[in-house]
Amino acid sequence: MLELTMAAVCGADAGATAGMTMAEAPSAPGAVLRVGRDASVCRLVTPEDWLFVSRVHLEFACGPDGGWRLSWLRGSRAEPSCEVRLVTGEQHRPLSYGGTAPLPHGGAGEVVVLDRGASRSVNVGFHHEP
Fold first, then answer.
1. Which residue has the higher pLDDT, 60 or 47?
2. What is the side-by-side strand order in the sheet with 44-45?
3. Furthest-apart CA pair in the chain: how many Å?
């Protein structure tokens, strides 16, 4: 099972937990959870006017072995207007635009989408139950 918790954070609201949303999916091959502005395809939806987030920005997908991977899907622009970081334990790794990284099996962490043009972020916490 993969559990996600998302919070949209703007400037002075850092640390606030109001407005958090949650999603989960079983660790079954082919299971997918998406994050972005398009509610028709994303389980976790960011504010529509936060254009630093693509319509479909992040994808969590379960592989044939039951392991999950995170992908930063390329949007319509050649260069992104945000940064994506994968935080697990003490490790903070940038994820490249269009890149993919495995999530730790049975672990927890956070994916942070930082707006390059304003003091706001989308924080997606994850917990992968073994």
1. 60
2. 44-45, 32-36, 58-62, 68-72, 100-102
3. 42
